[in-house]
Write a structure and sequence with these properties.
about 130 residues, Umud Fragment, subunit A, 7-stranded antiparallel beta sheet, elongated, SOS response UmuD protein
Length: about 130
């Protein structure tokens, strides 16, 4: 079976013009949609299943933005004690904490010289459906 991977503009048809022609979208440029030209944005591939409750699965590609300020409820890339983690942020008792999507897991405080919120996740690309 041969599959044609071109784009359809609606102009190369025979017979009558399709009324759906006004609704056709041009090529999709993920770099533009995800704004990857911005120097503060970069892709991060997920390893692990700690955030499946947030709809983030192992193998997904997250778009991290180092210029986006942290906010409660957002997912972020965090350096903690030499490890790079992706977790949901919470603001409790005057400090940032990391929440796992796993039940029964205690929040981790983001504190000390070896802890830093690097970037906030602004997008997700799933390559496996």
């Amino acid at each position: 079976m041969e599959v044609y991977m071109g784009s359809y503009t609606g102009g190369n048809t025979t017979g009558f013009v399709s009324p759906a022609g006004d609704s056709l979208e041009g090529p999709i440029d993920l770099s533009e949609i995800l704004d990857l030209r911005r120097p503060s944005r970069y892709p991060v591939r997920v390893a692990g299943d700690a955030l499946t409750s947030r709809g983030i699965f192992s193998g997904d590609i997250l778009i991290a933005d180092a210029a986006t300020p942290p906010a409660p409820g957002k997912v972020a890339v965090v350096m903690l004690a030499g490890d790079v983690l992706v977790a949901q942020l919470a603001w409790r008792n005057g400090q940032w904490q990391l929440l796992s999507g796993r039940a029964g897991t205690e929040p981790l405080p983001v504190e000390g010289d070896d802890a830093e919120i690097w970037a906030v996740i602004t997008g997700l690309v799933r390559t496996q459906v």
